[in-house]
Write a structure and sequence with these properties.
The chain is an alpha+beta fold and 444 residues long. The protein folds into three domains: 167 residues, 3-Layer(aba) Sandwich (Rossmann fold), CATH 3.40.50.10070; 65 residues, Sandwich (Immunoglobulin-like); 194 residues, Porin. The protein is 19% helix and 47% strand. The chain is built from seven helices and 21 strands. β15 and β16 form a beta hairpin. α2 runs parallel beside α5 and α6 runs antiparallel to α7.
């Protein structure tokens, strides 16, 4: 931030207790001193192209003065002190620890700071109030104002009025405890102490309570307090469920799914589901790295085959293709009890089968030998309990070769040539397949 004359407000008060039994902050102070003095100081700011006139001092002074409790002090005395502070520390003050330090130096009980910050086309105005004796943040107001058409005087006036509400309204009496006990408490991301705590907080806005303890998940609760509220806040934390570094487990899974149509199974055209089905079973061993063995069946139609090939052979309709596979793969997954992704690859043996119906009702079927192919897996796993989970998986298989290759003699008839070309072309087109499937897992 560059140093320009924005606003830092210090409320200078004779040493006294800030919190009282259900009374407003300023109301209790009046019991000891009918007048509280206010000073306006320069602060660091990054607001661009801003010219803050001296009248801003009057704007804030008039707002605060309406309370008939707060009154500006000698400005030259405050400016002189803050000049020395900035020279020694190299910056202005907005943090709670810094405000406490200044309060002790000035021997005051309450410090209020205000800063303005440029955020795109808005200006954020933030005001804080700190009890120096207890070193606690007792009021915090922040609002972002759109710069277009709004004067900076108006922004500060609205922020000052809201701060007065926090100080003059009866506070909420809060008792904060945790389970397990003696956990660290933060309020609006500021340290508040160790539970249990009894606090009096300004009302009229929402607070964020957070309980923090090593070995437990942070517990966060947001609460809005009305004037005069008396509230018991209990923050119950859950132990962090950490898995062993190298857990050994077995997952048994049953699979069912739909194949992509064969013309898109090569994943080089627009994907679409086919007309067949796929079922399978598998077992996986391990957690982050899993060794998986299994089998699956596949049924689809060869819609990627040139229609002229099967029509010349006299087939009625598109040939039906199926496969049986046995495979082993290595799967990587960053396991957690909720949602996690996985990816893997392996090898498998696949036996192809092609069935076709000819004119006249005759049905023919040919099968290949078991061929070796590459298996690729990708998907997400959703855990319901430690034992049961569900996976959505894309399985892609690609054969390394095609061993079905028939030939015909030189004196072969056109029908014999059409038959050889049909079976060769159909098996040649059936060297890859893709399946979208649902896996149900049971973890031992």
């Amino acid at each position: 931030m560059n140093k320009i004359h924005t606003i830092l407000i210090l409320l200078i008060i004779s040493q006294t207790s800030i919190f009282g039994g259900g009374q407003a902050v300023a109301a209790e102070l009046v019991e000891n001193d009918p007048l509280v003095y206010l000073a306006i100081l320069p602060i660091l700011s990054d607001v661009q192209d801003i010219d803050l006139p001296d009248s801003l001092h009057i704007v804030i002074a008039e707002v605060i003065g309406e309370s008939e409790i707060l009154s500006p002090v000698d400005q030259s005395k405050v400016d002189s002190f803050m000049d020395r502070w900035t020279q020694e520390n190299g910056q202005g003050c907005i943090a709670v620890s810094c405000m406490n330090s200044i309060g002790r130096e000035l021997e005051v009980g309450l410090v209020i700071s205000c800063a303005m910050q440029q955020i795109r086309n808005k200006v954020a105005v933030e005001i804080r109030a700190v009890d120096v004796g207890k070193q606690q943040l007792i009021a915090h107001y922040r609002e972002e104002f759109t710069t277009g058409g709004m004067k900076y005087e108006t922004m500060l006036q609205e922020a000052s009025l809201r701060l007065l509400d926090y100080l003059l309204l009866p506070p909420a009496m809060i008792y904060v405890d945790t389970d397990p006990p003696n956990s660290r408490i933060e309020i609006n991301n500021e340290p508040a102490g160790i539970a249990p705590l009894s606090l009096a907080l300004p009302t009229g806005h929402e607070y964020t309570f957070k309980a923090v303890r090593q070995g437990y998940e942070n517990k966060i609760e947001k609460i809005y307090f009305e004037p005069g509220d008396s509230v018991y806040v209990k923050l119950k934390m859950s132990e962090v469920q950490e898995l062993p570094k190298n857990p050994v487990s077995i997952r048994l899974m049953a699979s069912g799914g739909l194949p992509f149509n064969h013309s898109s199974s090569n994943i080089d055209t627009r994907l679409a589901l086919g007309d067949g089905h796929s079922y399978g079973f598998a077992a996986a061993f391990g957690e982050t790295w899993r060794f998986k063995i299994g089998t699956f069946s596949y049924t689809n139609i060869s819609d990627g085959l040139d229609a002229k090939v099967w029509r010349d052979y006299g087939a009625v309709g598109v040939p039906e293709i199926s496969a049986q596979s046995f495979h082993s793969s290595l799967i990587y997954s960053r396991y957690n009890p909720g949602l996690s992704g996985f990816i893997g690859a392996g090898m498998g043996t696949i036996r192809q089968s092609i069935r076709v119906e000819l004119e006249g009702g005759e049905k023919q079927e040919k099968k290949s030998d078991y061929l070796v192919g590459l298996m690729m897996h990708a998907g997400v796993e959703l855990g319901f309990t430690r034992s049961f989970a569900m996976q959505f998986e894309i399985l892609h298989t690609r054969l390394f070769s095609d061993n079905y290759s028939a030939t015909f003699s030189e004196d072969a008839t056109p029908e014999e040539i059409a038959e050889v070309e049909f079976w060769n072309e159909t098996f040649r087109s059936f060297t890859y397949l893709t399946v979208f499937r649902l896996n149900i897992l049971y973890r031992i």
